[in-house]
Amino acid sequence: MALLIDPDCINCDLCEPECPNEAIFMGKEVYQIDPERCTECVGHYDKPTCISVCPIDCIEKDPARPESEEQLMVKFEKLYSAQVH
Question: Is 64 helix (H, G, I), strand (E, B) or coil?
């Protein structure tokens, strides 16, 4: 699943620089995660770094976007093969 940031976000700015896929950006009121770029850090780390650094635990799996680890790896490979070419 891609991750999402709930409205309880306090805009602490800790998650955005931790995202290796540049999937986190400032929305209208709180940070948001681009589901097309979020791989839950698959291909980079053992667990999502944004969740690890969030001081209020407002980042969770998006139930509207179920993805297996294999699907997340395919997304990762697609994102990074596009950068190489």
Answer: coil
Integer Cα distance of 23 and 10 in angstroms: 18
Whole-angstrom distance, CA of residue 26 vs CA of residue 71:
26
Sign of the alpha-carbon dihedral angle for 55, 7, 14, 52: positive
Q: Quote the tokens at residue 16.
A: 């955005």
Residue 28's CB is within 10 A of a number of other CB atoms, namely 5
- From the centroid of its chain, how far is CA 25? 10
Q: What is the pTM of this model?
A: 0.90
Query: pLDDT tens digit string along 26-39?
Result: 999 999 999 999 99
